[in-house]
Amino acid sequence: MRRRLALAGLLAAPLGARAGAQIEEPLADAVRSALSASIAQAAPPRPRFDDPLAREAYLRWLSEMSERLKKRKTETQIRIEFLETIWYEAKRAGLEPSLVLGLVQVESGFRKYAISTAGARGYMQVMPFWTRSIGDGDAARLFHMQTNLRFGCVILRHYLDIEKGDLFMALGRYNGSRGRAEYPNAVFAARRQWLLPGEK
After folding, report:
1. pLDDT averaged per 10 residues, the chain (length 200)
2. What are the phi and psi torsion angles at 70 (to 5°)?
3. Are the beta carbons of 69 and 100 closer than 8 angstroms?
4. Mind listing the domains of the chain with CATH numbers?
5. pTM for the whole thing?
């Protein structure tokens, strides 16, 4: 019976990605250079901590998120690497990891190879034009986990800066639905599932 219910759940799950069509906008040379530098900087996804309390908080977060993500990513090593990279790239871009997890949930359902009808790719549903604007032009790299998460976080940070910190408007711009509530509200609702107890 459980197996039939699980199979029914899989069949009912949406197969397409929910991404809208991010809009290719002209970038000032300084912005293009800054974004390109952010994408190009190589760094290991595993953080180092001088403060033992910060390290303990990170390990607690990693353990809790791993448990929550277990049904969606069953292989332990893949799940841990994914979460380490989410945390690293989110912090690197000045974003909350819970926000990035919520966005990934809404955009791709945690599917690495998701492709939307608009052509957006990977976990964070990055449009291929970004690889031409600020990358090396190789859109296939958007299926590489760290590359996709780095592009997505850098792009969301860019939109937050354009929108002067207004997350609602930045999320709408990220999805190509600026000013409409459906997408930001979906990401905010998903984000709540990835908060630790006591976080708001």
Report:
1. 38 47 67 67 70 95 97 95 94 96 97 94 95 89 93 95 97 93 97 92
2. -55, -40
3. no
4. 33-39+48-192 (1.10.530.10)
5. 0.81
